[in-house]
Amino acid sequence: MFKPSLVHLETAVWISRLGSYAAAAAQLNTTQPTVSSRIKELEERLGIQVFEKTGRRMVLTVKGRTLVDRCAPLLDRMEGVLRSVTDTRDMHGTLRLGCGEIFAMTKLAGIMKRAREAFPNVNWEIDVDLTINLKSKLQRAALDMAIMVSTDDDVSQAASLSRLNLAWMADMAFAKENDLGHGREDLARVPVWTLSRPSLQYGLTAACLPDPRQSHKLNTCNHVKSLIEVVASGAGIAMLPDTLIEGDSKYGSLMRIFPDLDPVPIEFYMAKRSDTHDSLVFEAFDFISLNTCD
């Protein structure tokens, strides 16, 4: 006689969480027909209908909800036990990580180097985008985790990661030619550049203007590296990461101006999907949170 296994129950739980056989199949690293077969076997053995289709989503029946509500905590506890004794070097899978461009330029390479050593059999899909878009992708389950600029928004499943200082900068020759160094009044005399809306940098830059109502005069660029190169070429000034003028930076012509106008540091935090129960995501989330420093 067929007896439901943990595989059948796990499959039902993941369908309920993700809303479709296809999504559950991807999560469980199997095929959609296999998922369908498991649910059919489960329903035949228990003599109940576990799911019904509503629009494009598979939703639990009343009895199916009772089954999943009772099984899900047990499966989660078992997953936790397995995680506690599993070596991350034995984990396999693909992780989708999103981050902003400033973070990607300043810190991502170091994180990926350490992560490759800890998770040698894991593949990574990196998505560089604005925080507002990363949040949306997390909500749509298009990402597993995201590193974003901290805001006042209440984001669950998040951990503070690191900070980055911004500083007003200009090309040395440009600064000398325009006699920069007097402070806020200089912002009305020279071209001011910033990242495009709705970036945090845009808001910080606009707040420094002598008259914030003149923010429509800001020059904008939606690409951090291009923005840096525009300023380094002598086309204006901008608020940029202070790491650009440290050590052997290739942007050696940049200099710091207006230190009294430097904003508070940008804080990055890491968030994961609130509905995820994937052990690989949990392990990678904890690893990156603990191994990222300022």
Automatic annotation (TrEMBL):
Residues 4-61 form the HTH lysR-type domain. One of its GO terms (molecular function) is DNA-binding transcription factor activity. This is LysR family transcriptional regulator. SUPFAM superfamilies: Periplasmic binding protein-like II, Winged helix' DNA-binding domain. PROSITE patterns: HTH_LYSR. Gene3D superfamilies: Periplasmic binding protein-like II (3.40.190.10), Winged helix-like DNA-binding domain superfamily/Winged helix DNA-binding domain (1.10.10.10). Keywords: DNA-binding, Transcription, Transcription regulation. It comes from the Bacteria. Belongs to the LysR transcriptional regulatory family.
